[in-house]
Write a structure and sequence with these properties.
single chain, about 210 residues, alpha/beta, Rossmann fold, 5-stranded parallel sheet, 4-stranded mixed sheet, 9 strands, about 40% helix, about 20% strand, globular
């Protein structure tokens, strides 16, 4: 049996989750602007879904066909993978390991299933759940996006209800208020700083 990978002391594996439409991508984009690449790496998820308007391949996601996704999954190149809203998503193992080995925090955007998989693999991972102020506001955000059909919005709403029920399983919960993206990002920054202060020698094992 091969030895487990151990990240550098103090480097965190962070998982950020939340229902579709809660504003995760906007929050993550704000966090990117607030920090250099020297201390954090934002893991780019691979997915089989088609790009949305203004999404940048290789930046927002790595967009793959199913054959390539299956190749990565079957070769062990993905830490976790899951089907979400009819599309496959996965977390590249090499991105996470390279960041942690170099002493940088690895930040992953995952759904609830992915977060559970990472927590099972790496119990020291720090999980953060981003939630809306209310279910009604979340639905309004989904409708405002205009990127999905009515059927897709109904499915995402059902999934959101299931995801919101998983909130107690997370280490930290942050409410993303209307017009409050900067405040949400600052709150997450404080959570990360506090985790570093309380566990300066923690090492992530994978």
């Amino acid at each position: 049996m091969s030895a487990r990978f151990m990240g550098a002391a103090g480097a965190l594996l962070l998982v950020i989750s939340g229902p579709s439409g809660v504003g995760k991508d906007t929050v993550l984009a704000t966090l990117r602007k607030r920090h250099s690449k020297d201390d954090r790496h934002f893991v780019t998820t691979v997915t089989t879904r088609r790009p949305r308007q203004r999404e940048r391949p290789g930046v927002d996601y790595h967009f793959l066909d199913m054959a390539r996704f299956e190749q990565l999954r079957d070769s062990g190149a993905l830490l976790e993978w899951a089907n979400n809203h009819g599309n496959w998503y996965g977390t590249p193992r090499d991105q996470v390991m390279e960041a942690l080995a170099g002493g940088r925090d690895a930040i992953c955007k995952l759904d609830v299933k992915g977060a559970r998989a990472i927590r099972a693999l790496a119990p020291s991972a720090v999980t953060i759940f981003v939630k809306p102020p209310s279910r009604e506001i979340l639905l309004a955000r989904l409708l405002k996006r205009g990127a999905e059909t009515a059927e897709e919005i109904a499915r995402r709403t059902r999934d959101a209800d299931n995801e919101l029920a998983m909130e107690p399983l997370y280490d930290h919960v942050v409410v993303n208020h209307e017009g409050g993206v900067d405040r949400t990002a600052r709150t997450i920054d404080r959570i990360i700083a506090d985790e570093h202060t309380r566990h300066p020698e923690r090492r992530v094992a994978l």
